[in-house]
Every structure is written in C-alpha cells, then in structure tokens.
Amino acid sequence: MPYETRTRSVGGRKGSALYLSLTVLALVGASCSARPASSVDTVTPTSEERRLSGALRSPAPVVSDLVLPDVSPAGGGSPFVLRAKPGHLLLVYFGYTGCPDVCPTTFAVLRSAIRDLGPDANRVDVAMVTVDPARDTPEALSTYLAHFFTSYHALRTTDPAALAQVEKPFGVRAEIEGDPSSGSYGVSHTATVFAVNQDGKIVVEWPFGIQSAQVAGDLRILLEDMDNKEEMDNKGVQK
Amino acid sequence: MKRTLAVSAAVLIALGLGACTKSETTTEPTASMTNAGPAQISVSDAWARESIAMSNAAAVYMTIANSGGMDDSLISASVDPAITVKVELHETTSGTGSSMTTSTASPGSPSMGNGMSKSVTGSSNGVHGAMEMGTPTPTSSHGMGGAGMTQMKPVSSIEIGPGKTVKLEPGGYHVMLIDMKKKLTVGEKFDVTLTFKSSGTKRVTAEVRAA
Predict the structure, then answer these.
(1) Bridge-partner residues for A186, per DSSP?
(2) Using the beta-carbon criterion (under 8 Å), do A50 and B177 form an inter-chain contact?
(3) Which of A60, A122, A175, B86 is least enclosed, having the fewest CB within 10 Å?
(4) Does B57 touch chain A (CB under 8 A)?
(5) d(CA B153, CA B89)
(6) Is the CB of B117 less than 8 angstroms away from the CB of A59?
(7) How many Cα atoms sit within 13 Å of A38 on the Cβ side?
(8) pLDDT digits (tens, 9 = 90+) for A28-80
C-alpha cells in the first residue's frame, strides 16, 4: 500500500508540474534579455530549477574526472570519461541486468523519452554502470543495453574501490542482498537517472517513477539551453 | 401527479427487469462494494515483461481485487516448471517517490553500515525537486541518490484486505521468476497459479509484453 501512495503522488504532480513549467517557460521567454549574463555560468538559475521536472543539486556535482572501462562492442574496453560529447547529454544509470523490475521500467521510460525528441534523439547518449560486475559480463551488459538503445556505453569495473569512487559524487549506493554465492541474489541500488552535460556537470536527476513525457520535456529544455548558450558564445567570439 | 409518477416508476422497473440479465451485473459486488462474506478474489490484467537479453529473471504483474468481507493474502505463485521452478513474491521499495517532498534517509536498509552511508551521502549539497514550487530551499542533507535507493526483497505474502484492490506493478509488488529456463517473448501467454491463504488457488493467464 505505501507504494500505491507513492505512485499516485508522482503521477499527481505531473499535470501541475507540466502546467507550471509551461507557465514558467512563458515567463522566462518574456524576460530572457533581463537575465544577467553571469547566470549562464552559474549552475542553476532559479528560473531553470522551476522549469525542470527532475531535481538538481546546487552546486551541480562534476563527474568528468571519473573514468570507467566501456565494455560495449563499440567501446572495446577503452576508458570512458563521464561527460557528454559536445552538444550532447549523457544519461547515466547505475543498475544490473538481473534486475527485473526497476531497471527495465526505467530504461523503457528513457527509450520512450529519447524517441520523443525526434531529430534530437541522437544528441542523447546512455551509459549504464553495472553495480553487479560479477554477474554482468561485458556481453550480458551490452546485450541488455542493446535491447533498449541503438548506441550505449556499458561501463563495468570489477574493482569495488573504483566502482565506489564513481558512485560517490553521484550519491549512488548499491549493496548486494542475500548470499552472493547463491547466484540469484538481488542488488539494492539507487535508481536515479542522471543527466550529465559536456562539462561533466549533473544538470538534472530523475527519481524512479518519473514519466517519459517529463524526461523528454527536461531533455528538450536542456538541449535548447545548450544551443542558446552556444549561440551566445559564438556571438561573443565574433565581437 | 403522484400516481403518474408511481405508475411510470413501476413501468420503468418492469422494463428494467424485463430487459435482460445485464442489469444484474451492475449489482454484483465490486472491490469497492464489500459484502460481509468471506474473501472473494479476482485477478485481472496479468502480464509479464519479456526476457531481456541474457537476463534470466522476469517480473509478473497483475491486479488483485478482494470483493469479499474478510482479509485474504497471496502467499505463493508458480508457473510451468519448463519456465522455472523458482518463483517468489517480491516488493520493490524505495525512498525516491517521497524524496521529492520529504527526503529522509533510505528506509529499510538495516544492513547498510553507518560508515558506508556517511561516505556516500556526505554531501551537504541541497537537492531540490523542481516540482516543489513552493519550497525552493534545499529539502535534504542527503543527495537524491542517498534517498533514492531501491531495494527488491522477497515478501512472505501480499495482503488484500476486504474491499481492497492491490496492484502488482513496476516499482511495487511483483511475482518474480528466477533462474528461468525459458525466455519469455512478446505476445506469448503462460499460466500463473496463485495460492491465496483463504481463497485457495487461482489460475490466471499472463501475457508477455514488451519491456
């Protein structure tokens, strides 16, 4: 029963959050020129906080000093730096392939949200960090991700210290439940999805239960912000 | 005037009675209309997520309603042994949903040592949900991550109180198929035998849907 309450509360906010974000968008649009130039460099302008459905931390944690092997066929085990390509966003999720409930639900939401972006879909990349490297072989992890996404980064380290180092700035925790030797244990883990920008900053994070329309809406806003910033930067250069 | 009303009412009733048995279905007890009798369990919308890649676990979801007047609970489930013999009732719990409003330390992780918990949630950075329009101030000293740990654990039973409907759905309760010998593919159907404490066994057909 506590779960029912939870889902209702998440779903219930959806409408009002959307309405409010639309309202705020309109306000922001009207007052764009009034925005101080410095706000571009600050992590989270107040107006932005109110536009996004997800949550953000202030200051935004920077994760671009973190590196994990990308064991996907495309990655070939080479080191992957946790930041988005220029002009892209990188969605980072910590999970495991034996997770039958939360992980596939989350990935289905992300897949749907990314598809909603249309031509901008290829500007959003997905990385999954396995919290169960013992069972998630490179092949298991890669085929799992391939089920949902055409391109992905399968991040895996068998060094617990290296994994913990990556989890820390995200605020992620993971812990094996039950007997690891049983082969069918579960792993408790933080089920948040993090969006990281090209500077390696976490620009928004979505809790489990977020709807794909909310994720898509946030992605659109963040991509648009990046485009606007780039445009402004270019103008600055021309001067 | 009164008489015409009474007559038309009588005619309406007669018409209603004569119409068909359909009208009777509306008077059947539903989950919200409890009777005083024993538990009456009905199960609907049973589905399972397709097997993903090499994963040998899958979750089965459904809606269970108890239109009776007494408690009942789901105590076990089984499927064709060709799929798996290992079936458990599971519950996913997490602090994520509530963390947007009132962030608290993750409940239900007693095995988490203090040291570990501190080391990963030590950030004093505030996290504020953008949905929280009225309270733009930091709501928690724990990161979203700290509050948002989901945990999947076996439960011995799932209670369905009198007049209650319990949804087994993503992020909550599910019937977990473990060590599966066979992959589930979209469109496939398979039987799930559910055992209830009072109502005994019920067999439902689950449909496999895309992940």
Answers:
(1) A177
(2) no
(3) A122
(4) yes
(5) 8
(6) no
(7) 0
(8) 333 333 333 333 334 444 455 558 999 988 899 999 999 999 999 999 999 99
